[in-house]
Amino acid sequence: MSRSDYPQRAKHGSAATPRRIALDIITDVTERGAYANLRIKDAVRGLSAQDTAFTAALCYGTLEHLYYLDYIIDGFVKGRQKPVVRNLLRIGCCELLFLDTPSHAAIFETVSLCRAMGMNGLTGFVNAVLRRVDQARNSLPALPEDTMQRLSIQYSCPHWLVALWTKELGLPDTEKLLAAASPGLTVRAQFPCTTDELADALPCPVRRGALDDNALLLGRGFDLASHPAFSQGRMAIQSEGAMLLCRALGDCREKRVLDACAAPGGKSAYIASLSENRALLTCFEKHAHRIALMQKNFERLHVTADILLKDASEHDPEFDAAFDAVLLDVPCSGLGLLHEKPDVRYSKRESDIESLAATQHDILSACASYVRPGGILVYATCTISKQENEMQVERFLKEHAEYSPDPLPFAFHSGHMLQLLPHRNGTDGFFVARMKRCI
């Protein structure tokens, strides 16, 4: 694409309306591979809480329904459009079909944005397409009869991923997984604050997590970053699935614990909290800028840890048998976070799983000797992929006779491996496995 295909981004000020910001973000994500959550965080600075919420809803709504929106648009439009024009139609249709914006306002504002961007010659086209979609909302194009195509379009999920999950989970579970609602926002208390004290301090209804009773699921959103519990380090934002990975280590009080892929530090912080700050924590991270982020988080949460600039995939004999417990929350495809990060599905390719599995194996091999005999190794991902999860653990156990499967310390599950699924467990798609070093 030429530079002229991308109109200049809106600057903060009168031009930085929520819809213009959303359009810039959607274009950055779909055409340049940007991360939606990072772009939104940066772009909404200075906006009101209401405009921030609307910008996020429009961005995430468009990305969550991207394939379906394109399918509907293609039913009313012939030929291809420049990326910015296609994204104008996408956000306009998202408002019409998935948000609470009145039809006349959604159409008027999208057309006004087209005009404000200097594309006066396209205002009639944008207006006509959106009006036709609105008029046909009760008789929109039927979805394809082919099951794989239908699921891909209906739930805006790449065909390869629908096929992978159908093969590994079966068709009924795949459709339930794709249709599952977002788990919502979850927070927890950081020691010495208790869960009850945090629940009483929050300005909204909460309910306890079903898997970890320290998890508090928020009944509605609010500005978490400005709440005193956050600034004072009494509260952390963390999904229930991520919390379970830390629980898998067992009691870490007075134990030497390594978090080998630690940044940004949320799991290390929960390990510290669970142990009442009595775990002897070491954190590896191979990127200096992520170490700075981790240090900032630890300072806020009053966590003490030995943080080292180190690549977990490279073995260092200095740490052999140095730890009672090691957590390997390895780099992965992130396919268990599609509700939290809807853009992930569009940036991943099936070939990525192969290369990620190789990296995961390298990390497992490099860190296996860091666990003392009798100690615990926990392997974890935030994805739903047997090649990255069950097959990885099975291969490791075959290659390392010194390890054996060890039951996870969960009342609701007795095996040594657990795949969490949104439609079954009400949390993101995390995987966790626990192994014990015998010799």
Question: How do the strands and helices of this protein lay out in sequence?
Answer:
Layout: H1 18-32, H2 36-43, H3 49-64, H4 66-74, H5 83-98, H6 103-116, H7 123-135, H8 147-154, H9 159-169, H10 171-179, E1 186-189, H11 195-201, E2 206-208, E3 216-218, H12 228-231, E4 235-237, H13 240-247, E5 256-259, H14 266-274, E6 280-285, H15 288-301, E7 306-309, E8 323-329, H16 344-347, H17 350-367, E9 371-381, H18 390-399, E10 403-405, E11 417-419, H19 422-425, E12 431-437
Parallel strand pairs: 5-6, 5-8, 6-7, 8-9
Antiparallel strand pairs: 1-3, 1-4, 2-3, 9-12, 10-12, 11-12
Helix pairs in contact: 1-2, 1-3, 1-5, 3-5, 4-5, 5-6, 5-7, 6-7, 9-10, 13-14
CATH topology (level 3) name of the largest domain: Rossmann fold
The CATH superfamily of the largest domain appears as Vaccinia Virus protein VP39
CATH arch. level architecture of the largest domain: 3-Layer(aba) Sandwich
Number of strands: 12
Q: Count structural domains.
A: 3
Report the radius of gyration as a whole number of Å: 24 Å
Which structural class fits the helix and strand makeup?
alpha/beta
Shape: globular
* Number of contiguous helices: 19
Strand content: 5-15%
- Share of helix among residues? 40-55%
Detail the poorly predicted runs. Answer: 1-8, 10-14
